[in-house]
């Protein structure tokens, strides 16, 4: 079944028809409904979608916190559906860093910023001198050198999130996942946190996946993927930060494509549309109810 050319063979992160169903008593919620997503090594991607669209579920699956119901999910060498519990722990320690929306969830309140950054290294047995050195280097690179001795409560929300980024980077993860990392911050502070995530991506080459309901972040990253009802639906690519982006619709391997709601409204596209294949594009018209050719 595994061939050299299968879907996403070259990508670092592959989600292939990913399904996650939550079963609670008599209710079944399909949080992910066949989601496809590829992320290349070194990319910085924002996944944007309304509340309830499945963003946190996606990140929980990708970071090894939650197991999908069906489909395929791979990060690097790790098959997220086939991992044992021990492999899951190993994966979480070696490959991923995670940043939560709630600033208080990312850091231990009774440790200083520096001690927080050292903690994940202590867990995997890095020696003390090396921990110190690396923590100082990370805090310095994120503009927090003079904050190392402070506890989280003595830091602003934006500083806490930047310490959280340093902590997540401590063990040199391949991927950084951030779930609404700027959700509790005002715009200016949120932009600082974004700059820190961009820096982790630029300076360290860490692949970064950010999920957010704030479509304004699209201007902060080169690639934005939209998620709706547990599926990826469209994406915007821009050549540089601040540049206008080109919007692309995603087409899955069964040929399904989602037409943006604004286009559907403007052209009255619903239920059934007329397609016409042109030499270099596809025409889509509202169904006017006319049968063609007198049939
Ligand atoms: P988002 O992060 O985009 O707001 P979530 O991934 O948290 O979306 O949730 C997607 C859907 O799955 C929602 O309908 C939510 O209510 C449901 N859901 C999430 N977690 C659970 C859970 N543990 N049990 C049952 N339903 C859940
Ligand atoms: Mg969420």
Walkthrough of the structure:
By secondary structure, this protein is an alpha/beta fold. It has a domain at 263-295. 29% of the residues lie in helices and 27% in strands. It has helices at residues 55-62, 85-94, 103-106, 113-123, 128-141, 157-169, 187-204, 261-267; strands spanning 13-24, 27-39, 44-48, 70-75, 78-79, 96-99, 175-179, 207-212, 223-228, 231-237, 246-249, 273-277, 282-286. A 7-stranded mixed sheet has the order 6-7-8-3-9-10-11, sandwiched between helices. Strands 2-1-4-5 form a 4-stranded antiparallel sheet, with helices on one face. Strands 12-13 form a two-stranded antiparallel ribbon. Helix 4 (113-123) packs across helix 5 (128-141), helix 4 packs parallel to helix 6 and helix 6 (157-169) runs parallel beside helix 7 (187-204). The radius of gyration is 22 Å and the shape is elongated. The mean pLDDT is 89. The protein binds adenosine-5'-diphosphate and magnesium ion (MG). Adenosine-5'-diphosphate is lined by residues 22, 24, 29, 31, 49, 51-57.
Count of DSSP H/I helices: 8
Rounded to the nearest angstrom, the radius of gyration is: 22 Å
| Overall average pLDDT | 89
Query: How would a crystallographer describe the biggest sheet?
Result: 7 strands, mixed
- The H-and-E topology, N to C, reads as EEEHEEHEHHHHEHEEEEHEE
Q: What is the count of β-strands?
A: 13
Bound molecules: adenosine-5'-diphosphate, magnesium ion
Binned, the helix content reads 25-40%
Measured distance between first and last alpha carbons = 45 Å
Gross morphology is: elongated
Derived structural class: alpha/beta
Unreliable runs, pLDDT <50, ≥5 residues?
A: none
How large a portion of the residues is in β-strands, by DSSP E? 25-35%
Give the spatial strand order of the biggest sheet.
Answer: 6-7-8-3-9-10-11
